[in-house]
Amino acid sequence: MGEKWTTVNTPDQRGRVAVVTGANTGLGYETAKALAERGASVVLAVRNAEKGKQAAARMTGDVTVQALDLTSLDSIRTAAAALRSRLDRIDLLINNAGVMYTPKQTTADGFEMQFGTNHLGHFALTGLLLDLMLPVPGSRVVTVSSTGHRIRAAIHFDDLQWERSYSRAAAYGQSKLANLMFTYELQRRLAAHGTTIAVAAHPGVSNTDLIRNTPAALRLPVTWLAPLITQTPAMGALPTLRAATDPGALGGQYYGPGGRNEVKGHPRLVTSSPESYEVAVQQRLWAVSEDLTGVKFPVVQSQQNSFSSGAAIPM
């Protein structure tokens, strides 16, 4: 489809069911809105149900709301049970919600906020909903990462919750690296089933309310420069939409803006950091995530095969 992929290229989504986390604002809102406009039945999975209803009212199509607080495993389990009771299938699970550069704090379960929300929350939600996807041909789990996954790129197994020291940027980078490692390991596990695939995306630098936790010394300069160095949430949502709907997308692929340094532009296939492709670390992170969340996935242990940077995981 070339480098100018837009919402016009989104195939007809009628008959498909999409669950989008963090869909009341920003990238999630634009993603959900576009899917609904193309005919999908969309569930906005949001922390604030009232704001979710307000967002749904601004969309066209079949849009409903499900309360979901990714900072609480109890809330995740409650939301998953509610979705299972009302849906008989899920075609698209879009793990979009996230927090960025938060002050040092923990989730309800004692996890560092960024790792707990961005990675562990979505890990648990996906595991609890995946059996609604496995029977559905063409179903996809799309997880939103960030160019920030390259920041001090590592999974700090010796201090996952940043209890000994804390860096907002490094903790964010760990959570976004975890998003990619989760995608790649999930795809390896899904390959044996042949129906559902796992794909990742990142929005480049988009002008969303994630900026609210930027340190004060940087907030004003970033605000001034925003029109020059960022793109709109609608543009930032395009890589996610392409990952979710492009008929040519393969499991294990990663989409981002096609412009210089992946900051702006129309979505294309991109490559994540070398660290993100380390299979042994992916599998260790998976095991730790299962232990921390108590969620086991209905998919088999992955094989030890690796894959080259920028390529889809071998099916």
From TrEMBL:
- What's the protein name? Fatty acyl-CoA reductase
Similarity annotation: Belongs to the short-chain dehydrogenases/reductases (SDR) family.
* Gene behind the chain: acr1
The answer to whether keyword DNA damage applies is no
**Enzyme type, top EC level:** oxidoreductase
Keyword Calcium belongs to the record: no
Question: EC?
Answer: 1.2.1.-
**Which species does the entry assign this protein to?**
Streptomyces rimosus subsp. rimosus
Alphabetized GO MF terms: oxidoreductase activity
Q: Which Pfam families match?
A: adh_short
Q: Which InterPro entries match?
A: NAD(P)-bd_dom_sf, SDR_fam
Protein keywords: Oxidoreductase
